[in-house]
Amino acid sequence: MRLDKFLANSGIGTRKEVKKYLKGNLVTVNDEIVKKADMHINPEEDIVTFDDIPIAYEPVVYLMMNKPAGFVSATEDDEHETVVDIVPEYMHLDLFPVGRLDKDTEGLLLLTNDGKFSHQLMSPKHRVPKRYYAEVDGHISEDAIDKFKQGIDLGDFTSTPSELEIVENGEQSIAYVTIYEGKFHQVKRMFHSINCEVTYLKRTKIANLELDEELELGEYRHLTEIDFENLDL
Question: From the candidates 52, 77, 102, 227, which is the catalytic residue?
Answer without folding.
Answer: 102
